[in-house]
UniProtKB/TrEMBL annotation:
It comes from Bifidobacterium polysaccharolyticum. Transmembrane segments: none annotated. It is an enzyme of class 3 (hydrolase). Its EC number is 3.2.2.n1. Gene3D superfamilies: 3.40.50.450. Keywords: Cytokinin biosynthesis, Hydrolase. The keyword Hydrolase applies. This is Cytokinin riboside 5'-monophosphate phosphoribohydrolase. It catalyses: 9-ribosyl-trans-zeatin 5'-phosphate + H2O = trans-zeatin + D-ribose 5-phosphate; N(6)-(dimethylallyl)adenosine 5'-phosphate + H2O = N(6)-dimethylallyladenine + D-ribose 5-phosphate.
Length: 255
């Protein structure tokens, strides 16, 4: 119920007039709306700008969390495989990601990717081919083509941060194949959360040592020398060129 009372302070400051209560929110003076919430609810017409306001976005965000938790709650042990959407099917890394996805699925782990083409498609394909759980967590983007056909459990998200939460909550390890900004974003998100103990410790495997060498040179020669990371930070990850080793590391730590 909306409550209106007079508000007047004789001690100090200007008189802002009456106070308008709308739930936990109070408004005074020019901030008081012309129509109350009940009138807006019962109105049959008017503009639809409210659909694009932050309070309505909160409900959409909440709905995405509910959908994601509901779909993945019974997934069981799972590992995420990140990598570029641009990797071609003739690329050796595509074959490696396909093998890693298949081997993880054979061991009873679900394989979670971003659901797109390239490395994501390869990992999903490997898991699906052996009858495993092949999960795709897609994202609404103008250039995206939707979930690849090897996904047998898929969700498409509107918000990146909800999607990232699903990766973190339901993965007990990650393998990061060569990729660009999206892959790096996902990798550093996991590294930050694990390093700061905001997420449980988990194996983080970087596949293709040569691809990641420049990044680790920068860590050692610039970032570390400037005192921005500690001695232990690079030890958060394991680098390998062997798909079998990558899978073995994940399986040793599975939930």
């Amino acid at each position: 119920m909306v409550d209106m009372v007079d508000n007047h302070n004789d001690d100090e400051g200007p008189d802002l007039g009456r106070t308008y209560h709308s739930g936990p929110v109070i408004m005074r003076g020019p901030m008081i709306p012309e129509a109350d919430a009940n009138a807006g609810l019962l109105s049959s017409g008017g503009d639809t700008d409210w659909l694009h306001m932050d309070p309505w976005r909160v409900l959409r965000i909440q709905a995405e969390f509910v959908d994601g938790f509901g779909a993945l709650a019974e997934l069981g042990p799972a590992a995420a495989i990140f990598g570029s959407a641009r990797t071609g099917r003739e690329d050796p890394t595509y074959a490696a990601a396909r093998k890693m996805g298949g081997d993880l699925a054979k061991a009873g782990m679900a394989v979670i990717t971003g659901g797109g083409p390239g490395i994501m498609e390869a990992a999903n394909k490997g898991a699906a081919e052996v009858g495993g759980k092949s999960v795709g967590l897609g994202i609404e983007l103008p250039m995206e083509q939707g979930l690849n056909r090897w996904v047998n459990l898929g969700i498409t998200f509107r918000y990146f941060f909800v999607r990232k939460m699903m990766f973190m909550k339901y993965s007990s390890g990650i393998i990061v194949c060569p990729g660009g900004f999206g892959t790096l974003d996902e990798m550093f998100e996991v590294l930050t959360l694990v390093q700061t103990h905001k997420a449980p410790s988990m194996p983080i495997v970087l596949f293709d040592r040569a691809y990641w060498q420049g990044l680790f040179d920068w860590f050692s020669n610039t970032v570390k020398q400037r005192g921005m990371i500690s001695e232990l930070d690079p030890d958060l990850v394991i680098r390998t060129d062997d798909p079998d080793e990558a899978v073995e590391v994940i399986l040793r730590h599975r939930g």
